[in-house]
Amino acid sequence: MTETSKTPSVSKIINAISFIGLIDLKLNNEEILQNATDRGNRLHNFIQAKLQKQPLTEIQEQDIPYLKSFGTLLKENPEHKAQLLKCKCEVKFDTSKDKDNTMPYLGRLDFYNEEDNIVYELKTSSTISISHKLQLLAYAKAFNTEKAYIIHITKDKYKIIGLNDLKSEDLKHLEDIWLRFIELYYLSQKRGYASLKKIFTTKLDDVIKRDKIFSYEEN
Fold first, then answer.
1. Considering the domain 10-209 in this protein, what is its CATH number?
2. Confidence tier at 5 by pLDDT (50, 70, 90)
3. N or C: which end of the chain has fewer CB within 10 A?
4. What are the extents of the domains in the chain?
5. pTM for the full model?
6. What is the DSSP string of 149-205?
């Protein structure tokens, strides 16, 4: 997403905290991330066109197994299929429109069902990481909904991951982590990354141990 606003995107907040070394999100290397992004964009465009009955976009041969997994998902989950068919695609939002929000952020949803207030994010990476779940949580909070799902499709399977599938204590930890990320990001804009790292490295080490942040990684 190209940012012209002073309001940071969800991805920018997460990447900034990871970049300055305050926390290791175990992201893949740059080449793998770019390949996953390119594949995700192709699949998203194709699926969007399919759901909205528009002319289908171009895909590559390597994308076909992922589309078959998505087709299986729709066949085996008619309730989600019905919701997805009512979704708008690539829905932008900006929480700075709320004047009471002192730490706003913006983003763009893959799929949003406005009628039932349901958020869907499509992921085609090999695993679902803590950063993906933080992103989903941030989107859910922006739309004030508990009905938020990651649609995770790979070459040979699919998985639907909902925030409401998490244990209450795990969801609370995830919410605390996201709040810390926003606080740290905005503080870094005032003090600079270098001073922030000196101040918070030890504190965040304790946070990681206490909140077991990596317990959100998919096995």
1. 3.90.320
2. low
3. C
4. 10-209
5. 0.81
6. EEEEE-SS-EEEEEGGGS-HHHHHHHHHHHHHHHHHHHHHHHH-HHHHHHHHHHHHH
